[in-house]
Amino acid sequence: MSMVYATPGEKSGLAGLLTLAVVAAAALVWQAVWPHPLHLLGITVDRLSAMLTLLVGTVGAVTFRFSLRYLDGEPRKTRFLNWLCATVCSAYLLMLSTNLLLLFVAWSFTSLGLHNLLTFYPNRKESLPPARKKFLISRLGDVALIAAIAVVWRGWNTMDLNVFLARLQVGGGMASANLVAVLVTIAALTKSAQFPFHSWLPETMESPTPVSALMHAGVINAGGALVLRFSPLIAMSPAALCLLTMVGTLTAALGMVAMWAQVKVKRSLAWSTVSQMGFMMVQCGLGVFPAAALHIFGHGCYKAWSFLRTGSLPASKPRILPAPASRTLILAGTGTLAALPALYFASFISGFEPLHTPGEFALSFVVALSIGQVWVALFRLPSRGIAPNGLRFLVALASTVAAAVLVFSLYRGSQLFFAPVLGPISSLSGPWAWVLAGIPVITFSVLVALHAALPELTRTAAGRAFYVHALHGFYFGALADRLVDQLWSSPARKEVSHA
Amino acid sequence: MHETIEQEETATVDELWSSVISRVCGYIPPLWDLGNYVAVNPFLGFADRTVSEAARFVTDGLGTTTLPSVAFYRKQWETGAFDEAALNEAAQRLDVEPSPLKKILTTGVVPTRPASVVLTFAERIDREQGTHWSDALIRSITRWCAVYTSGGGSWKFPSGQGLFSSWREAESVDRTLEIAGLKGLRRWVRQLPDSADVATEQILNRLNLPADERELYLYRLLGGVFGWAAFFKRSSWEMGRSDGGQLADLLAIRVCADAAVAEVATRNRLRRSLPPAPAIEDEATRCVFQEALEDGYASRLLRAINPPPTDQTVARPTVQSVFCIDVRSEPFRRHLEAQSDTIQTKGFAGFFGVSLDWQTDGEHSARCPVLLKPSLRLCSSRDGGPSFGMDSVKYLQTAPAASFSFVETLGAAYGIGLASDALAAMPARASREGTDPFTLDGQPEGMGIDEESRVNLASGILTNLGLRTGFSRLILFCGHEGHSTNNPHAAGLDCGACGGHGGSINARIAAALLNEPAVREGVRVKGINIPADVWFIAGVHDTSVDQVSIHDADKIPASHTADVDRLQEWLNMAGEATRAERATALGLPATATNLKPLLKRRSRDWSEVRPEWGLARNAAFIAARRLRTRGVNLAGRTFLHDYDCATDPDNSVLTLILTAPMIVASWINLQYFGSTVDNDVFGSGDKALHNRVGTIGVVLGNGGDLRTGLPKQSVHAADGTWFHEPLRLQVVVEAPTKKIDQVVNAQVGVRNLIDNGWVRLFALDPESMQSFRRNPSGMWEIC
Fold first, then answer.
1. Which chain B residue has its CA at the smallest distance from A210's CA?
2. B116 touches chain A (CB under 8 A)
3. ipTM associated with this complex
């Protein structure tokens, strides 16, 4: 009934994408029940690839269905839908590929498809600079990935990722392995919009909304998926782990501060993606790969829905009452402290051990900080519905325990669920790993303090200047534009001067 | 001696600039935010000029298309929408030589005029040096406007400063434009005076513009930020102030930024060589074509109208239904009346005379035409407010650290949201105004309406409605609202007379008022005798699904339940017929038996860009007795207001009609006109690119100017043709020409609109089939 407007071609496109999603769901159930990965024709079906393809397939089918009515009247709609399908299929294949050549082909086709979607409106001149930036960054990623594949071929004489990872366990060739890990990490950082390759992402609103939904929920995960696929190798390379943690932390912090300043709904969501992808990379860098996989799935669903829903007016403005920084900090601190016994209790219930590795400690610390923010939200909201402070206190305590148990159970669940694929990975330990874990822990604590101080900060001229810098993403976009402009137009200028 | 002379000279220059500035600010129409979105005439500032003159000025200033191109008229000519006789007549009326006109339409040689191009300095530098400073400036300024008006994102930006000084402060630290190549911009901005007026004066005097270019120069500067200019205009317009207010601040910003580029980007003097002016199709010629095209429509309309009734005695109707004048009411009323001869329908502005300030959930909004000020404050006595949980979730989505844990714990739940929205499983967000309890008494303090005002309000409603006698047992006040989801412009589908909201609450208040025994007694003293067996009910017409629901069913006395049941049955049948009539235009088969579920699904489909056609194709406003239009298929293109000149000896009702509902209709009409003809400037572009700025408005893609009018999808059909036909409002009043003249001549604003051709006025003789057209000269001619 709902499809009265669709043409037969559109219906079959939708049916195809739905089939992909259903197949992925079936594979996930199958792998959940009987966790024996299937290797076939260069692809691997396991719990990780099933989960990632379920996300890509679902988001793909939903955005396709959305586009059918949303682009009603667009003369080049068929072309759009074709590219949408092509991009979804490439990304789907990418999540499954373990043959490195196939992986590279899917990787490049995803990028090509996305480029065509991002430049869909030829008359939107503003779509070109960010698309060009992205194009150049993607080629840089291609080079890194190709180089990684070449080193694997030379050193281990295989194009199969699983074979490579198996041979790696035998030992030897640590220098080459380190090189592969760093190259793969660089490729992943370019794909998932990590600093300094992030600035195109908040500028790609010049194509229809479903493109943003697909990009932010499906395609952007390709970098994370790559790292997860290579996780046994990455976990052995301190250089790659350091790179992931540091770049991820920087990106997460930068993206978050920039997001706070944005006033346009899509731009704010885009900066949020930058920040969330940063945190996912931090999780990879600290070796808590199952949590990163959980993050990719949750973020994908949340972001796809949020983008497609940007047309809805908010029912009412959220009315968090302004409060002095000290009061907010006390609330956040109290909440964080209250989280400690709750987390202990949650650890007891769920079996997740917060002090087991530096990575798990950092994760738990972020959860504690988050619970602190729940306290801020509860106590700074105007008294509607829940009036007396005593009742609020009870609600806060209950939320603290509930949140702690829920998060830890999810972490433990994902550890168990992804164990056949992502673990047991030689757990990271030693003093350097604790130092590494300290980077995000300290950074996010500083962010909590900064966030509390924002209202007071913005009362000073320096604070307002800081706002302006954040609004513009600290100018990395403008600098990159300038650089790309010089790179892109210099051949053109040379041609003119020769003529 | 010398000093004095110099001072005098400066004084005259200052005065000139300030008067130019206030004139230019006057050209900008106001714009309402998305929550209260109503149609505005984009040419509001030009009512005292003829359409042809204004089109010329706006085209030159904003670089837009103001009138359809000759190619459009040629197509209409070829399909026979107007003929040679109409063309000649129109030419004569507008004082244009008729002989070459036909040739223009047949051979294709179009007379053109060179555009008088006054460019901003940034635009001139761009053209000479191949740079893009003009766009970069507009992006930067509009971005700051968005921050300033929305008070920041989740990181609040304090609102202590004025627009100009806050821009000045931000621009003096913003490195974006310097990185792009405007070296020294921040230092340049820092030396600007802190006051907008002083800065404007200082810079304009330095720019050394020729006197005849000043106005167009400033207008063009505002044109680059037309949407934000309109948004800032709203507050001074509502307060009736002539000074620019924040709009003057915006102009100061534009002046300073333009001068900055001129002085920072180029150290060497600009060549004063203007680029070759583009050729523009002559506006006067196109105005004749427009007039001829409208003559064709108007004569078909007037021919369709019924002769005056010979027998005035009518049996008592079983039910009277009062609908909004909105064009979407017309098909529904026609189909409702077709159910039974005993049904009478009436047209009245959909706020039913209740100028309401409605407060709910701690937020209040004006529920009356924007031309009026709310006079009655009421609030919902329902408890509650924004849910505590949702507000916390909103906060956690952007809070430090918590935003990460949030997507990990609750992200998967959004997968359920994705699935349910993709299947359109959730019902459209219903407005609660059909059920919210309220009281007319002064509860809480400052709300409500006293006894005397109630009686005055009730008698005013009945008098203006022309319903002083002949009451039926059951009288329905039927407001209307549209239903759509994920649609930033949803308010544009609601009732314009209710300030861009649904009409339920106004209808319920009107009905409650008139059911009060004390009010009935009060109006009886004033000469309106409402029989005891009369009961007023309220309802709402869902224009997306064409379904009318009746409110407060529990309050209906037992004596009337049978009447209401029968009415509901008739309403359902009328809805069925209206849906079938509308289906084809929405791309649905008219024969489909399941139109209602199809339309319902459409109204809750988050990807639907055309939930309904709104007021598209509107073309005429008829103020007449319903007998003159009853049974006539007006194709949903006419605003219908009931008017019986026999009951209006002092012209007060006609004055009200022409100064309020007619103006609102013409605002809507010209908004559709502008949005259709040049959607880039007067519309709001492609919905697929909309990027919302809070609840203020939308921008396209990454950013740029705020958009003002209707989305492309609301006026252009899916096949790319224009769904809306750009015709000016044809106003038909059933009254003697002398009576109409008395009203028009007393109301300068109305007369300007008519004489300058922004609406066209026709008189329908109450006693015959004769009709007259009022010419631009103010004379009437038979048509």
1. B688
2. no
3. 0.95
